[in-house]
Design a protein that fits this description.
alpha+beta, 120 residues, 8 strands, DUF956, 2 helices, DUF956 family protein, 42% strand, single chain
Length: 120
């Protein structure tokens, strides 16, 4: 059994971790780390300490009314893409531990197209 690195948990929610195949489980936002645990396989988990998080990037649509997923970028291990039942609530819990200057909104469709045209 895996031991949690958090001493206090602010939020627990059903979640999906997007990697090669979608993995379903629970997300825990606590005072020490962001943790994901698989429902079916106990040894399939990820614990991301807050010191390792460089950015949290959220896809935002309709002026913040719909947030389908968010991405946690780390220093050494790359990026992790998650979605929960209520992404707004999860991002608000993460905001308590990640400074506002490291929380970003993903580029929109027109911003991506413009960036590609300008860089060619």
């Amino acid at each position: 059994m895996v031991e949690s690195s958090n001493t206090k948990v602010d939020l627990t929610a059903n979640a999906t971790w997007f990697r090669a195949l979608s993995t379903y489980g629970k997300v825990m936002v606590g005072d020490k780390a962001f943790e994901f645990y698989n429902d079916r396989n106990i040894s399939d988990y990820v614990q991301i300490p807050w010191q390792e998080v460089t950015y949290v990037v959220a896809d935002v649509y309709f002026h913040g009314r719909y947030i389908p997923r968010f991405e946690i970028r780390t220093r050494a291990n790359g990026k992790f893409i998650f979605t929960t039942r209520n992404n707004k609530k999860t991002l608000r819990a993460i905001r308590n531990y990640v400074p506002a200057n490291r929380m970003r909104q993903a580029l929109g469709l027109w911003q991506k197209i413009k960036r590609r045209i300008m860089h060619k």
